[in-house]
Amino acid sequence: MSEVDLTLLFESHARSCDPNDFQGQVMRTPYGKSAGPDQVAMIVAAIGKALDIGPHDVLLDLCCGNGAITDPIFARCRGGLGVDFTPYLIEVAKTNFERSPDRLYLLADALEYVETTDDTKRFTKALCYGAFQYLAESKAIGVLAALRRRVPNLQRMFIGNLPDLDRVGNFFEGDIPSPDELKRHDTLFGIWRTEQEMATLAAGCGWRTEFSRMPSAFHAAHYRFDATLVKRSLKNTVTTWLRPIWRPYRRSSRFPRG
Known about the structure:
The protein has helices spanning 6-16, 22-25, 37-51, 70-74, 87-96, 110-116, 137-150, 179-182, 195-204, 234-252; strands spanning 59-62, 80-84, 103-107, 125-129, 156-163, 207-212, 224-231.
């Protein structure tokens, strides 16, 4: 795998697809064909269950793509906002799925949005499906930390379709890419992580992680997992950050008793 200009890739690929091929536009193409209604239904069901989405919730979907997955989740709640940095995908979302004022889509960078928006109090659930692995590590941390710090009523966040480093061999039939390649965000698959790595990343930003997997009939069930983030207490968050710093001092204080 080689370095990819993700902005150019997502934009040019989406424009090359049929205007109504919503799954193809976001490269949800198992075995070279756009995901069918059964696959989409499994995704929507998994998101709804993990988020415990209800009629009073308001959803923030980061890296929402063209809104084809966002919209059926909006339909289960009060609506919300989808954010993506790909101009054409947001154009498709606005044309096909936007229903002002309850179901809106915005062209913006995910990290920039969560760090600067004043529209934070209304969101109760958040989503990032099939895109978190394309965020550089520092950016991923920034997004999760900003959500924890700036969105006071956010209860749960679903991060879906993450490449599983522990099952990388289930996908690659030949040579497995090098560890350095698997940890790069700017490749076709993004960053591969273990569940433990994902839990550690989230914990440092103030989240507890629950893991789930798709049914075996889902095309990527054999090498991907989903993560649902739930807010940790401030005390637990501070402890997570301080533990690596405190540990050497704690060890140095253990003198033998005379």
